[in-house]
Design a protein that fits this description.
With about 240 residues, the protein is mainly α. Helices cover about 75% and strands about 0% of the residues. The chain has one domain. Helix 1 runs antiparallel to helix 8.
Length: about 240
């Protein structure tokens, strides 16, 4: 009974958190679209960050930002797929592949709709030629690396290793997002919006993981359900 109540409370908490993240994302998007006060905050924050620039930090954050580059992410995705084939896991690489593809699509569509110019090229330490809102690097960072963190935390048995993995992953994600502002190719609101919509995706995946047993039972009610579950090897994530 207590296990059921805990799961139920987690579901309510995650659904509430999902809605909060989504609503704040919509609010930021609305302000960026209407060019309201968020623009001034973005400019002041960027100017403050630029005041700390030096050669060593420039090199460091260029390396950090490359961790969410398209080539890096697809290389890591290939490694995940290879490991999954070796250990005969199917559902996780499918989720990871879906995560990467869906988020690249979200970024491109929203960029074209909002069509927000990037910060001035004179302040940029790297060159980008697409629109600014939202940050593709930040979105891929929180969804891709966030998925890895969730998976490892589910699989690791040591509480100490879980905490280390979680904290390391969070620092990496934040560093990638911050690097986009530091390098002068994104505004603070670009990165914040990406983290929010990325959090929505991670919460959705977490809800799937928590309710996997229930979902499997519901799918099994259909004639084709058992074949689908066997094909995907959906007994656990």
């Amino acid at each position: 009974m207590s296990k059921f109540l805990n799961k139920r409370l987690w579901n309510y908490f995650l659904i509430g958190l999902f809605l909060v993240c989504l609503l704040v994302f919509i609010k930021i998007t609305e302000e960026v679209w209407s060019k309201e006060s968020v623009i001034g905050y973005d400019q002041r924050f960027s100017n403050w960050i630029f005041s700390f620039r030096n050669a060593n930090l420039n090199t460091f954050f260029k390396l950090v930002t490359d961790l969410a580059d398209v080539k890096t992410i697809f290389a890591l995705l290939g490694i995940v797929l290879l490991i999954s084939i070796i250990y005969r896991k199917r559902i996780f690489p499918i989720l990871m592949g879906t995560t990467v593809v869906v988020n690249f699509m979200i970024v491109e569509v929203v960029k074209l709709i909002i069509a927000r110019p990037r910060p001035l090229v004179i302040n940029a330490l790297v060159l980008e030629d697409s629109f600014s809102f939202p940050s593709g690097h930040a979105l891929i960072a929180i969804t891709f690396y966030g998925m890895l963190i969730l998976y490892l935390c589910l699989k690791l048995k040591s509480s100490f290793l879980k905490v280390i993995t979680f904290l390391t992953g969070i620092l990496l994600i934040l560093a990638i997002g911050f690097s986009r502002i530091y390098l002068g190719v994104h505004w603070l609101s670009d990165v914040t919006a990406s983290f929010l919509i990325g959090s929505c995706w991670l919460i959705f995946v977490s809800l799937l993981a928590i309710n996997l047993e229930f979902l499997v039972k519901q799918i099994n009610r259909f004639k084709w359900g058992n074949y689908l579950l066997k094909l995907l090897d959906v007994t656990h994530i």
